[in-house]
Amino acid sequence: MHKTFYQFLMTQRNPDSTAAIAEFANNAFLDQSFPKQSRDFHELSQYLELNAGYLPGMTIFDDAWQAYLASEA
């Protein structure tokens, strides 16, 4: 069974890390409105652009998305 993007992202959490993807994951964990069941790039991208003030740049999401796709291959 394939993971959702959120499930993948939660594997990247690390409160002691300053890596961009870890910070993204830590903040997404605290975001109660994050679309946790989504596997759709456009839905996630749109949500993050409109609602994720904790994400300093969309390239972090793009990199995380590529890592997600690679993990699902």
Automatic annotation (TrEMBL):
What InterPro entries does this protein's entry cite?
A: UPF0346, YozE_SAM-like, YozE_SAM-like_sf
Domain YozE SAM-like, chain residue ranges per copy:
4-69
Q: Which Pfam families match?
A: YozE_SAM_like
The record's similarity note reads: Belongs to the UPF0346 family.
Matching entries from HAMAP family are given as: UPF0346
From the Swiss-Prot or TrEMBL record, give the protein name: UPF0346 protein ACFFLI_06400
Q: Which organism is it from?
A: Lactiplantibacillus modestisalitolerans
